[in-house]
Design a protein that fits this description.
The complex is a heterodimer of chains A (272) and B (678). By secondary structure, chain A is mainly beta. Chain A has one domain: Porin (Beta Barrel), CATH 2.40.160.40. Chain A is 6% helix and 61% strand. Chain A has one helix and 16 strands. In chain A, the strands form two sheets. In chain A, strands 1-2-3-4-5-6-7-10-11-12-13-14-15-16 form a 14-stranded antiparallel β-barrel. A two-stranded antiparallel ribbon of chain A has the order 8-9. Chain B is mainly beta and 678 residues long. Helices cover 12% and strands 46% of the residues of chain B. In chain B, helix 1 runs antiparallel to helix 2. Chains A and B meet through strand 6 and strand 7 of A and strand 22, strand 23, strand 24, strand 25 and strand 28 of B.
Chain lengths: 272, 678
């Protein structure tokens, strides 16, 4: 009987500490969640401009767990369809457990403009469910993103999640959905080594500053190392495996207060 | 091939306004970034649009013509003239790169306003058949409306409005209609009618628009250089006597501190105060130019027994009490200017007499002890400019009929093409108070200030430009909010980097130190405490084809005396799409701000509909975004739309105060402009 309030409390605490108020936004496979400028991998509900950079259609699944509690996990499935005119992405994520759940369904479009920059928009339908009142509440959320290739080895990304500050309005309360501005930079020292940094600002929360390196060995194994600072400094570590069709990734981060957070993902690229 | 050329010309013409608007936006953004003083930027905007419609032929230009381009410094004007003198006609605009002191940013800015070719705006006879055939007319209709209902529009029965002193008489619409006609730059006339939001358009109190304006300007009619009839402005010297137009004081155009003597010119803006109504002319004989003008208009004020405490300059007549003070005082103004122009020396004398039909009697306190009182004022000023090779000296000395003096003197010097320097000294006595003075100053008043301003522009490397300025000033008499003599300093540095032709960025740091009252109510002797404010801004501009992307981050810090430092930050992301051959353009901005305290407020320039200028102030926590659209229905009709919304995320349940109060955390504004060319 005491598990539900405890979980809710932990959920709120984690949201406060991680500056990510909604569990339905999955973490990305980029080190330290530096997905805004990651020109190689599009993650659902992150920068939709990256969709425009996709050259092959793909399918991906992602599972994320927070603090080794199965109730605080996010499951995501995403699909991207690439063509010459505009790329389309569909994504669905689910977070929570029987008493409280969040769902987000999104459809986005991205286009690359002569490899100089790409732009994307996404519309998400966010729903939450409270078992206690057996009610579903929903809101429509917009996303907007840009990725600028300022030089062959330097990219600058911008993304905005929920810029119009849509919220879920219940009878007596308003549940805030985060409104996040993100700026990210990506620099390739060489094709194997990339350095990414990112600044996130949720409109009424603290900043999150993240930075990390990803190094690809033997064109197969990717080692990731980084950290981010929000209220605490959180170190991040990741591993990846990349073949011509499959990309596997495993990321972890150790929050000094709340513990381990990890995500595992698999991406399958469809050869057109 | 012929079709291609014709198409290109048409495309260029269609796109010229868009390019001009972008250039003006860039310039005003640079200027407004350092200025928190509200000013009628529309005039400078309209002036530049007008130049872009009648671009300057560089091969047949004069200093006066180039000085109309407000963003060019004196040194740059001199460099262009020197190049033309030395090498003759310019063959192509690409040659501009060879002119010393002009970098790619300057050239990009100047392009919409110039061309190179044969034939100029000679002083030829005007034929009415040509005027009727080639004259261009445009009709502009603009409508603005806020979506949320403000407290002032609620009926008296509404409980939230019980505290208000008087409701707005009119509806929430702002409407403005303008008609313009111009034949080259020789004949220009316009008519404007405007109603502000809340003003009554048709009712018991008022019928029709609240403000009407009409003007006619003729240029170069024989020896008569300019004739203006109707509403006009007159700017002479450095602004100690008369300069209702914008003064480019402290800005990121650090070298641009000398006011240009632009003489008489038509007024077609909608600022309801800062203009003259009557007529004037400028007559040229030899090196001497003589200007005379007369104005007779009504101004606003609360009159009681033949006197009024203050001149109300807002031009808003929304409530009964505001309407009662509308046009209650008659103001007459007679002015003369004589300027003699040698190749290296220019000397001018300006005399202005102002008469009011009622006494201006402000309620005296310490800070306004020397403010003008009475109903007659005469001000005279002597201005000069001396050019000796790379040295340019300028200044003015002004005197009122009560013996109060003010002077401003400056020098700009360019020892090499990479380095330009400016120094400006001003000394305005506390007793000096002239109605239309507007010169280089820390505040909007040209009074009670002594100071020294130094600035430098350096191009140390090919892609870099560094601009820096320092200003130190004192106020020998108390000012508003400073009950004792005060001092202040400000420092500014900006580094511009042009990485590629399509990628530019800058870093700007500004530091201000001022004094303010300590706020102790029981203090017997007024004491001041220092306030500090610094800001750091980064801006990146990236152009790809028809897209233009701007990323801006601005952070500021404020501190009063030894109180804790407060901080504000703003992020803004712009995306503009303006295809050359298309009939539409789009401009989007997303902005997030986190500036809890008023001291950390931000003013950010926004793109707007044609001829409109917007620089909203934001503070608190929230986001703001807008969408700006232009659509050319055909060659004659174009429409602009703008919708902007501010959403506060700091838990506030209402914002603004009094009649402007809005319940809720959102503020939405809609604006539409229709342009009809015929």
């Amino acid at each position: 009987m005491t598990k539900s309030p405890t979980l809710l409390l932990l959920l709120l605490l984690s949201q406060f500490c991680l500056a990510q108020i909604t569990g339905a936004i999955p973490s990305s496979s980029s080190i330290a969640n530096t997905s805004t400028s990651d020109s190689h991998h599009w993650t659902a509900f992150h920068n939709p401009a990256i969709l425009g950079k996709i050259e092959k259609s793909e399918l991906a699944v992602l599972y994320e767990n927070r603090f080794q509690l199965s109730e605080l996990s996010t499951k995501t499935i995403q699909a991207a369809y690439s063509n010459n005119l505009i790329n389309t992405g569909i994504s669905l994520s689910q977070f929570g457990y029987s008493h409280y759940q969040e769902f987000m369904l999104g459809i986005g479009w991205g286009r690359n403009f002569s490899n100089k920059f790409s732009m994307g928009v996404q519309f998400n339908y966010f729903t939450n469910y409270f078992e206690a009142s057996n009610t579903y509440r929903a809101a429509l959320i917009a996303q907007f993103g840009l990725l600028m290739q300022l030089s062959p080895n330097f990219n600058l990304g911008f993304s905005s999640f929920n810029p119009f500050q849509s919220n879920i309005k219940a009878e007596f309360v308003v549940q805030k959905i985060p409104s996040i501005f993100s700026y990210g930079a990506e620099y390739f020292f060489c094709p194997e080594l990339v350095w990414r940094s990112q600044l996130d600002k949720e409109v009424s929360s603290n900043y999150r500053i993240a930075s990390g390196f990803e190094y690809t060995m033997l064109q197969l194994v990717v080692v990731k190392l980084g950290a981010y600072q929000s209220d605490f400094l959180v170190p991040c570590l990741g591993l990846g495996l990349s073949t011509s069709a499959f990309v596997l990734s495993f990321n972890t981060e150790m929050h000094p207060l709340l513990g381990l957070r990890s995500n595992i993902g698999m991406r399958y690229q469809i050869h057109n | 091939m012929l079709l291609l050329i014709i198409f290109s010309i048409q495309v260029v013409a269609e796109n010229r306004i868009a390019v001009t608007k972008e250039a003006i936006a860039d310039m005003l953004e640079q200027f407004s970034a350092e200025s928190e003083v509200a000013f009628d930027y529309n005039s400078i905007y309209e002036e530049l649009i007008s130049i872009s419609q009648n671009p300057i032929n560089l091969n047949h230009t004069k200093r006066e013509e180039l000085e109309r381009l407000a963003f060019l410094s004196d040194v740059q004007v001199e460099s262009i003239l020197a190049y033309l003198y030395q090498f003759g006609n310019i063959k192509t605009v690409y040659e501009l790169q060879l002119i010393e002191g002009l970098d790619m940013t300057d050239i990009r800015r100047i392009l919409p306003f110039i061309f190179v070719g044969e034939g100029g705006n000679e002083n030829t006879k005007i034929y009415w058949t040509d005027v009727l055939k080639y004259g261009k007319q445009e009709l502009l209709i603009r409508i603005d409306k806020g979506f949320e209902e403000k407290s002032g529009y609620l009926s008296e029965e509404e409980p939230s409005n019980q505290a208000s002193t008087g409701n707005y008489l009119g509806n929430q619409f702002y409407t403005c209609t303008k008609y313009r006609f111009h034949y080259k730059d020789r004949i220009q006339c316009s008519f404007s009618a405007e109603k502000d939001a809340g003003e009554q358009f048709w009712g018991d109190v008022h019928k029709g628009y609240d403000f009407y304006s009409a003007t006619l300007q003729l240029n170069n009619i024989g020896r008569i250089k300019t004739i203006v009839i109707g509403d006009f402005r007159a700017n002479f010297g450095q602004g100690l006597v008369l300069h209702p137009d914008l003064v480019m004081g402290k800005s990121s155009f650090a070298l641009k501190v000398a006011n240009r003597n632009s003489g008489l010119k038509k007024y077609s803006s909608t600022d309801e105060n800062n203009f003259f109504r009557g007529g004037g002319f400028s007559y040229q004989f030899g090196k001497i130019e003589l200007s005379a003008f007369y104005s007779n208009k009504w101004i606003d004020g609360d009159t009681v027994n033949g006197s009024f405490p203050t001149w109300k300059k807002y031009g808003l007549h929304r409530t009964e009490s505001e309407y009662r003070s509308k046009q209650t005082i008659n103001q007459q103004l007679l002015g003369l200017n004589s300027t003699i122009n040698f190749s290296e020396l220019k000397l001018g004398f300006t005399l202005v007499h102002t008469a009011l039909d009622q006494q201006l009697q402000s309620e005296k306190s310490t800070y306004n002890h020397f403010y003008f009182s009475g109903n007659q004022q005469t001000t005279a000023g002597l201005n000069y400019r001396i050019r000796l090779l790379n040295l340019n000296m300028f200044g003015e000395i002004g005197r009122t009929d009560k013996g109060a003096m003010a002077s401003v003197n400056g020098v700009s010097f360019s020892p090499t093409s990479e380095v330009s320097l400016v120094a400006l000294q001003r000394k305005y006595s506390p007793e000096y108070d002239s109605f239309y003075a507007n010169a280089f100053s820390e505040t909007s008043r040209v009074s009670n200030e002594n100071g020294l301003y130094l600035a430098a522009e350096i191009r140390p490397f090919k892609q870099w430009k560094i601009v820096t300025a320092a200003d130190s000033y004192t106020a020998p008499w108390p000012r508003f909010g400073m009950d004792a003599p005060s001092i202040g300093h400000s420092y500014f540095i900006q580094a511009d980097y042009t990485a590629q032709r399509n990628l530019t960025m800058f870093w700007r740091y500004k530091y201000d130190e001022k004094q303010t009252n300590d706020g102790l109510t029981d203090a017997k002797i007024a004491t001041l405490v220092p306030t500090y404010k610094s800001s750091l801004q980064y801006k990146l501009c990236y152009t790809v084809g028809n897209f233009r992307i701007k990323s801006i981050c601005n952070v500021n810090f404020a501190q009063r005396n030894s109180e804790p430092i407060t901080q504000g930050i703003i992020f803004a992301q712009n995306l503009s799409y303006s295809p050359i051959s298309s009939t539409y353009s789009v401009d989007i901005r997303l902005q997030l701000f986190d500036a809890i305290h008023y001291e950390n407020r931000f003013y950010s320039y926004e793109q707007d509909v044609l001829y409109a200028f917007s620089m909203p102030m934001v503070y608190g926590i929230g986001s703001r975004y807008y969408l700006n659209l232009r659509y050319n229905c055909n060659q004659s009709i174009s429409v602009w739309f703008k919708i902007a919304q501010t959403v506060y995320a700091d838990g506030r349940e209402n914002h603004s105060t009094g009649n402007e109060m809005i319940v809720g955390n959102r503020k939405t504004d809609f604006r539409m402009l229709l342009k009809y060319l015929f």
